[in-house]
Amino acid sequence: PRRSDVPVEMWTDLLRSATRRVDLLAFAGLFLVEEHPQWIPLLRAKAEEGARIRLLLGNPDSTHLASRDAETRIGGGVAGRVAAVLAAYTPLADVVEIRLHDTPLYNSIYRFDDHLLVNTHVYGILAAYTPVLRLRRIDGSYADTYLESFERVWSGSTPYRPGGVT
Predict the structure, then answer these.
(1) Which residues fall within 8 angstroms of residue 69, CB to CB, at 6 or more apart?
(2) Residue 94 contacts by C-beta under 8 Å, 6 or more apart in sequence?
(3) What is the CA radius of gyration of the chain?
(4) Distance between CA atoms of residues 132 and 42, nearest Å
(5) Mean per-residue pLDDT over the chain, rounded
């Protein structure tokens, strides 16, 4: 019923099982690096083994991120979370693709090959307290809708390089 109810080991189990693709679309997703000490080393290992890793995070200066911050009434906390997660991911910039977006997010998408966790967003409620859908990609499945959404946001995003946006 809530992202905070997803079993802790599910996140790293899904990452460990991925061999081809790992995609992440969120404003920040800071919980992954804070609550899972193996997250960063596993991402690096997966990338070095040949998996394509794409991290798509909110631009800290974006209008949509500011709107989300106002909705949840956390006084600038969303931009701070993005800054913290970018600091954590910067050491991976040599092996993963990191981009910033300025889009309204209706959900966060976490893809591990053909398995997805989709964290729905609800107005005024932090993502940790909103439902997560677990989907498996099968031809013609619901998962394709979320993957198409990810690709649309990716195509309109800006590459991130340590030290700033390029």
Answers:
(1) 75, 76, 77, 78, 79
(2) none
(3) 15
(4) 22
(5) 88
CA dist list (Å): 82 to 17, 19, 33, 60, 110: 26, 27, 12, 6, 16
The string of pLDDT tens digits covering residues 99-137 is: 999 888 889 999 999 999 999 988 877 778 899 999 998
Task: Yes or no: say if 39 and 32 are a contact pair by the CB < 8 Å rule.
Answer: yes
Distance CA 52, CA 164 (A): 22
Say which residue the tokens 């394709």 belong to.
144
Structural tokens at position 89: 């991911």
pTM of the model: 0.88
CB 43 within 8 A of CB 52: no
Question: What whole-number distance in Å separates Cα of residue 52 and Cα of residue 136?
Answer: 18
CA distance 127 to 110: 13
Distance of CA 83 to the CA centre of its chain: 14
